[in-house]
From TrEMBL:
InterPro entries (UniProt xref): Znf_RING (IPR001841), Znf_RING/FYVE/PHD (IPR013083), Znf_RING_CS (IPR017907)
Protein name as annotated: Polycomb complex protein BMI-1-A
SUPFAM superfamilies: RING/U-box
Organism: Desmophyllum pertusum
SMART domains per record: RING
GO biological process: negative regulation of transcription by RNA polymerase II
Keywords: Metal-binding, Nucleus, Zinc, Zinc-finger
Bias-annotated ranges (Basic residues): 96-109
Residues of the RING-type domain: 17-56
Lineage: Eukaryota, Metazoa, Cnidaria, Anthozoa, Hexacorallia
Compartments in which it is found: Nucleus
UniProt GO molecular function: promoter-specific chromatin binding; zinc ion binding
Cellular component aspect of the GO annotation: PRC1 complex
Segments for region (Disordered): 89-109
Keyword Cell division: no
Amino acid sequence: MSLLKMPLQQLNPHIMCVLCAGYLVDATTIIECLHSFCRSCIVKYLQSSHHCPVCDAEVHKTKPLLHIRPDRPLQDIVNKLVPGLVYDETQSPPGIRRKDRKRRHCSHR
Ligand SMILES: [Zn+2]
Ligand SMILES: [Zn+2]
């Protein structure tokens, strides 16, 4: 069965990051156990722990950051399955400007 034909629900666990509970951004995989996370999430996480957040495998005693690698194919899958995701991280979503904010005056005379 083609990976891309699987229902999103079934794929979600593989394309989501347990650290931020969102879809993978810059998917990065721990070489030791092949678990994947967002790059920023796992880099931050490995500053305080040298173990995989999912299975607790030791990434590396002293230099865990050398034992993760960008997972291009996985990120491609995420980008295909979740169109629009690419924009979220780099641009602020439209419609947040508050030019339409109306001031309400209290008028109970
Ligand atoms: Zn994440
Ligand atoms: Zn793991």
